[in-house]
Amino acid sequence: MGRVGRSAYRTVIDTYGDKVCGLDVNTKRVAALKLQNYNVVNGDAEDLDFWRTVVNSRPRLVMLSLAAHLDAMLAARWRKTVGYSGRIGAVTKYQEDRDALLAADVDAAYIYHEEVGVGFADHVEKQLSNKWGQRANAGPDCSAPQQAGRQVSPYPFPVVH
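^ thats the sequence. predicted structure below, dont judge the formating
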C-alpha cells in the first residue's frame, strides 16, 4: 500500500473497523505496515489468484490504488473472470483512463489530481474553520471584484495560485 492506499485505508477503517484489509505485493512493506497495526496481506491485485481469493472471502468493496492504469484494467478484467460481484473503486490520473475503467465495469473511478484538489480545499477549509471558529472566506472577498463587467473569481474563498 502506497501513500494513497494507506490514506484510503485509514479513512475507511473509521467506518468498517477490523473488516478492512490492505494489500501489497512488497513483503517488506507488508511486514512494516503490520508493525504499524495495519491489517494487511501480501498479494497482487493484478494476479488472477488474488481475485479467486477475493470471490471466496466476499468483500463488499475492493479499492484499487495501482500505479499503472493498465494494472487497474487487468484487475477489472480478473474481477469479471472470477465473477466477483462486490463493488470496485479505482484511482487513475486521466479522464480517458477513468472512462476506460468505468467502461470495464469499475463502479467508481476517481481522477487522482482532481480528487487531491477537492480534498486539499476541504481540508484547508476545515482547518481554518477550526482555527478561527469561522469559515475561511471571512478573509478578502474574492467574488466581489469586477473586471470589465465580469467577476474575477467564482470562488467564495481566497484563491492562491
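The two ends are 31 Å apart (CA to CA).
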